[in-house]
Amino acid sequence: MQLHEFERGLHGRVAIVTGAAIGNGRAFCERLAEEGASIVIADVADASATADAVRAIGAEVLVVQVDVTNPDSVAAMVAATMSRFGRIDILVHNVGHYSELPFDLLTYDEWTCTMRLTLDSLYFTIRAVLPHMKKAGFGRIISFSSDTVWLGTPYLTHYVTAKMGVIGLTRSLASEVGKHGITINTISVGLTATQRPAGDAVSQSILESILPAQAVHRADEPEDIANVVAFLALPASGIITGQTINVDGGVARH
Ligand SMILES: NC(=O)c1ccc[n+]([C@@H]2O[C@H](COP(=O)([O-])OP(=O)(O)OC[C@H]3O[C@@H](n4cnc5c(N)ncnc54)[C@H](O)[C@@H]3O)[C@@H](O)[C@H]2O)c1
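Above: query sequence and nicotinamide-adenine-dinucleotide SMILES. Below: predicted holo structure tokens.
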């Protein structure tokens, strides 16, 4: 690997980041912009603060209001991106859904909501960007799993099931798209500083089970994860695919 490939960064590349209005998603937009990418800031909520932050870095920005659980809305996001930039190099699908419920209280509505926001949305967004990536012979798809899949954390059956699904999709699809120059990886995220557990009994027990399981006893910062997103997005990372990268303070070493 030659150093100049890293130095070129993401200049000329276009990245869609979903769930970009706050938290981790905003950090990903800023980090990719620092590497030179143009950013499509996609969220169901007002993302103007992220847009201001990314413009301040000097990157080109397109803000798209999207509901990633609606395939028509996702198609419109992709059409708007192609119309503005003419290419989609990177998809960072950050939207997820987190709730804590003992299995006895886990309603079918909450189960399906978790699957729709975590897995259906991943399916819809990948399906929408893949034709453009295949045509270009280049693509980087990055999604997010969770350290709770390794711990089997209680009260998260729905969440852990969905986040294991993300890993399965990543492993299988990587085999199909590699020949098109497309990589797909998932980052297994640890307890992150953006998360604000309610402090009730369930949240407290989850906190108490996760932090001691880490080798580094602090929560992830969004920037910890953003650095890995930027690395996986680089053209020079093209040999890394189908992987689950654990960014979790060492939980997955067990
Ligand atoms: N925060 C953590 O501790 C943690 C731990 C492990 C994994 N993760 C994963 O990391 C990712 C980001 O986590 P976070 O805590 O920053 O998320 P978050 O819940 O704070 O932010 C999610 C963003 O998605 C947007 N969104 C929600 N529904 C949407 C929809 N239908 N269409 C478009 N946008 C929608 C929200 O408006 C919000 O801006 C998720 O996939 C999450 O599961 C987070």
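The chain has a mean pLDDT of 93.
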